[in-house]
Amino acid sequence: MPDYKAPLRDMTFVREEMLGFPALWQRLPGCEEVTEDLVAAIYEAVGTFCEEELAPLWRVGDEEGCTWSEAGVQTPTGFKAAYDKFVAGGWPSLTGPVEFGGQGMPPSLENVLNELVGSANWAWSMYPFLTKGARLTIASHGTEAQKNTYLEKMISGQWTGTMCLTEPHCGTDLGMLRTKAEPNADGTYNITGTKIFISSGEHDMVENIAHIVLARLPDAPPGTKGISLFIVPKQLPDANGAAGERNGVSCGSIEHKMGIHGNATAVLNFDEAQGTILGEPNRGLYAMFTFMNVARIGTAIQGVAHSELAKQGAIRYARDRLQSRSLSGPKNPDGPADAIIVHPDVRRMLLTTKAFAEGGRMLIHYLAYEVDISTLSEDSAEQKAAEDMLALMTPIAKAFCTETGFESASEGVQVFGGHGYIREWGMEQNLRDARIATLYEGTTGIQSLDLLGRKVLGTRGKLLDPFIDRIKGFCKENKRNKDVSAFIKPLSEVVSEWDKLTRSIGLRALKNRDEVGAASVDYMMLSGYVTLAYLWAMAAEVAGRKLAEGAGDESFYKAKIQTATFYYAKILPRTRGLLATIGAGSESLMAMDEADFLIE
After folding, report:
1. What's the rounded mean pLDDT across residues 392-417?
2. Most buried among 24, 222, 316, 434, by the most CB within 10 A?
3. Residue range 507-511: average pLDDT?
4. Catalytic residue among 152, 358, 370, 441, which?
């Protein structure tokens, strides 16, 4: 199995040298005491916990899985003990508000925590991480009574939370959901219905779980306009706020899945379970988007985590595995063969995983920078600009990072050859675990429609144009910078093509709305490739400057420039094919009659 090592040096590069988080924190209210040394200490402590406590449980969770019984769900050996240590270390409270027992650190640090913990053991990480979305939803839309009941316990890690949307007949199309909410005289509601695919929906890690549930009131209008949101705890809080009697929530079963076996994906039955409404009646989907956007960024981080695992495992193996001789002459003349890392195609696979792992990390930090501004800035214009940037970039990050995470995991298997198909090496588990990420929180197709249909065309470019202007501004500033001269021309060209293509799709869509659906996934992937090209050019600019300054760590900075060069030479040209497929329109997709799809 992979011997996971926290990539702290790379994180420091992105955080401090590339994006300048320390300077941002010093100007945001409440972050004045967040120093580079403090953050470095947090990174190191989390990294040690991940390497020593979580990574050893990665394979345990896969092999044992979770165990269902009528008494509840038992998590794999060591999971609860690791969770107790996680709570004792204060990690669930890192970014929580101080008034509810949190440490009040910038929200961006949660993303760092998520990547490290998720890379070490994604199945385990989902138990505490879903709680963040639940508590933010309560904090944003809850009453004072709800906040006082739930937030302190969720921030401390004493209680966890879930998101309950999907029903057996109803996935993406939430307007079809049937779960009912009947009002009681005391202001509570009886929730009745079945939810499926509920990650961390039942487990033995904590004493109580707060389920955030979508349901319909009796007089609700049809469709998504008639959905309300409720807090439905597993155990009803007693008069003192402690977990009391069991609510009408039961786990009917847990799913038998392709991967992430260590996380309990539950079928939850709500049988007149008592809940309280969260937010306004019939505005539940609006409130749930607070949770969903957190989860989408979290799932983007999952894609990065799988790329990182593939990269680490494949590089170690390629350095040690001896097979064949280099085409350009022996590199290990005293041995029976050369290490496979000398072969060009192995290099291609290794550099692909490296470009996506490190590029994806840049993208996640880029979003985290905007999250800090949108959450903490007192400048309303700056805050709005950050919110708009997040609205545009979240579907790109979620869809692109999970697709490239799965590609990286597949390349990781390929580097190992036949050994990659064998369980003991861990690469096949990484591939199985990675597959769900493109489905979670809206599939790649759904995210792509959201990006192109709502965020780009739906705003007439108001969200996209500032990002394109930002990239063009970078190109203009570095036009004569020899350190990035090889990147500026292709970046300028591809961002202009992206801009022109967007307008072309918009014009075609005026005549035929199917043009949006036909183009959406290819458009999203192209958007992701352009975004990473921008970030890799930024990274190369910083690395070149550091080398010129004689900052030391030459091999690290040279590797950044060399990886950027690979990305531009071997990955960015994929946009040419995408431009062609998008240009082909919807005709070839929609021409066949439905009956012709049948198999006789």
Report:
1. 98
2. 434
3. 94
4. 441
